[in-house]
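User: tokens in, sequence out, please.
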């Protein structure tokens, strides 16, 4: 006797880059038992690949449609996305999302709603595109203590940095190329200011360490003020500048987070993460290091992550947050100072007075210094540094500083 197989119907909210990618993937794989049941969009006049009759313009028609098994929230407006996810969970529905800002800022509420009403929220697509990092952290590292999770988490900024190093184009030209290819939005601020990577890092913290961290707690800088001189310096010492997000724990169980442009040497796994690719390195206490790499931007790579979430939800998968109830960790700024490159369009004298650096090394390049400074001072003054157009890049402890400092003249060298 042949068993009839019923398809699971998806309510798709949003039909932009990721929504179109999901639609293409589902249409190309009809044998997997999924179909797009409804599509809701906002703009009635925007040209699309499907006829107007294929869309509804009232999100309530999707939220109230009992024939839909799963909802996919794939819109760009965070306030509206929050309302949609909240409403779906309050109705006990299953919903997947790629909206990392909304999830990072509201994850405690979403966890509570799932526990109260029995709904399910999956959001693998919100972090690192095609890389299954959240599922890996939950399933494989759910019990094991992690020493560090770090990675290139934003494909747009990584594409720009690759262009700056490989082709020596200017920042504006590299950004324009990224926008033309769909890797960066018309308003690229979330990507190039490090905010997108910040949101992803906060989401990772919940699954890697059981910590619910609000983005406002985290030190973060972007690449919008990067200079040709900074690129030249990195190239001269055999390094590449990458926007790196890091979560690290200490022996006392405290956890620190930061997103900051970093000089990465050739021996580092992140060195060869280029263009729109993302890469994540997990360093576990007993399992050691694991490295995952994949496309972090683009319609089909991100759409495939949404598809994976939908397929997992069909099979009954849900996040369990295994470390959430057992962690004793707290978020801190490390006591150890950090070494950073600062490059400003104007004099750094006043800023250095505010940062109170432990050591300062000055170069012949105007307004460029390397300083050793307490991380809490960077966090305290990060908005001022951004307002004044200062590019900030981390020189990690693992990087030999001697070749870098050969290009600088030490004007202050105090013991830590």
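Assistant: Sequence out:
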């Amino acid at each position: 006797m042949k068993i009839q197989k019923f398809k699971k119907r998806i309510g798709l909210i949003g039909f932009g880059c990721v929504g179109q990618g999901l639609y293409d993937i589902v249409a190309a794989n009809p044998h997997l038992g999924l179909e797009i049941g409804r599509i809701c969009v906002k703009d009635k006049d925007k040209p699309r690949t499907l006829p107007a009759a294929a869309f509804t313009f009232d999100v309530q028609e999707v939220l109230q449609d009992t024939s839909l098994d799963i909802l996919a929230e794939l819109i760009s407006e965070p306030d509206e996305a929050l309302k949609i996810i909240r409403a779906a969970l309050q109705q006990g529905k299953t919903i997947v999302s790629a909206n990392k800002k909304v999830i990072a800022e509201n994850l405690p509420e979403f966890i509570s709603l799932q526990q109260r009403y029995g709904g399910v929220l999956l959001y693998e697509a919100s972090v690192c595109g095609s890389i299954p990092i959240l599922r890996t952290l939950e399933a494989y590292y759910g019990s094991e203590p992690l020493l560090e999770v770090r990675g290139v988490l934003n494909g747009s900024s990584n594409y720009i940095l690759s262009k700056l190093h490989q082709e020596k184009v200017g920042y504006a030209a590299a950004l324009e190329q990224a926008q033309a290819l769909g890797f960066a939005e018309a308003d690229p601020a979330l990507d190039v200011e490090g905010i997108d990577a910040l949101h992803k890092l906060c989401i990772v913290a919940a699954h890697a360490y059981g910590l619910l961290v609000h983005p406002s707690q985290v030190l973060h800088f972007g690449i919008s003020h990067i200079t040709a001189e900074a690129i030249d310096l990195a190239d001269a010492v055999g390094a590449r500048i990458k926007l790196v997000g890091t979560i690290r724990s200490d022996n006392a169980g405290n956890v620190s987070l930061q997103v900051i442009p970093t000089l990465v040497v050739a021996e580092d796994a992140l060195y060869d993460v280029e263009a729109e690719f993302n890469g994540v390195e997990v360093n576990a206490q007993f399992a050691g290091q694991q490295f995952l790499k994949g496309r972090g931007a683009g319609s089909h790579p991100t759409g495939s992550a949404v598809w994976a979430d939908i397929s997992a939800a069909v099979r009954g998968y849900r996040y369990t947050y295994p470390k959430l109830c057992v962690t004793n960790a707290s978020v801190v700024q490390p006591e150890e100072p950090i070494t950073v490159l600062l490059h400003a369009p104007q004099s750094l004298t006043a800023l250095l007075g505010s940062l109170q650096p432990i050591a300062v090394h000055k170069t012949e390049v105007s307004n460029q210094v390397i300083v050793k400074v307490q991380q809490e001072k960077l966090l305290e003054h990060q908005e001022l540094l951004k307002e004044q157009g200062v590019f900030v890049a981390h020189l990690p402890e693992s990087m030999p500083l001697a070749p870098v400092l050969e290009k600088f003249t030490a004007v202050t060298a105090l013991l830590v």
